[in-house]
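hiii, so i know i said id send this last week but things got crazy w the move. better late than never?? heres the sequnce for the chain we talked about at the cafe, plus the structure i predicted for it. fair warning i was half asleep when i ran it
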Amino acid sequence: MKISFFVSSILSAYWNGAATYYRGLARELHARGHRLHFYEPDAYERQSHRDLDAAPPWAEVTVYAPGEWADVSRCLREASRSDFVVKASGVGVGDDVLDAEIASLGSSGRASAVYWDVDSPATLARLEADRADPLRALLPAFDHVLCYGGGEPARRRYLALGARRCDVIYNALDPTSHHPVASDGRFEGDLGFLGNRLPDREKRVDAFFFEPARRLADRRFVLGGSGWEDRAGELPNVNWVGHVYTADHNAFNVTPKAVINISRDEMAGVGYAPATRVFEAAGSGACLITDAWEGIELFLAPDEEVLVAHGPDDVARFVHELTPERARRIGQRARRRMLGEHTYRHRAAQLEDLLAGADSRAASA
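okay and structure toks below
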């Protein structure tokens, strides 16, 4: 199959946490014999903060000028010759136009149109709150809606909004990118948090990271991610290291005694939405602490493969009591679980089955 994707970026993870999700799936789909082409806008300084200098061997990449309709239109014409055209949520510029143009491919029969929601809690909340949202009217025109989180609740909500089909393709581990490495002195500490500063997560970062740091003045905390400049000096035991490129994620995960995943408000409320960081950290063999959300046991066993915190008291207790030996055991168990059940090889096989089923239904129609 030939599959074209319109995404925020596959070349750059700068303010773009979905990049590793796209890359992991694309690499495995290519290994299974599929041809992939990614289209991404030149926007938000991502092209000047690339993690990949050029298109990888497992996908073609076209960077287009989002404000130039001729350029966008050319990309859409090229993509329409694919078997499947995927419009990801959150491209960031021209989303309404891309939604409408790609949905029309499905309704015209020129290609199978897929809407891929990489932030289903936020998108569903938006659609349910606004009946006039343009995407809401377009949903029935897409042949398939895919979500990277949200589980069965998200699937049911999309069907209720008019989607013809909806399935969940969760985040996963890419073992070629995330694996154990040597520790790095830049990231030494008792607890690390890696995440960009976002309005809908900051209160939770205060509760699950800054508050434990206040209580444990004798412990070291390391903070990675963009946007924390004006908070970097609040506590002397918090070391802000700025934006951490994907090439350094493994070292960031394995160097502190433990790392913490902190969900955005909507993701924590909906559940069944493990962030990319969960799989990256577990795949590197790190001892992972996560804030509590429904469905965690589908991916990691609490107390054995992950530590689950319901608030700052739990985080402070874990950091205070955790020994290097227990941290190592938890990380090793988590990595084994990920390799056995939650790699992008598993997700690519699932996606292939879903798309092949859609293709056979279209052929018989």
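btw The CA atoms of residues 211 and 312 lie 6 Å apart. thought thatd interest u
miss u guys!!
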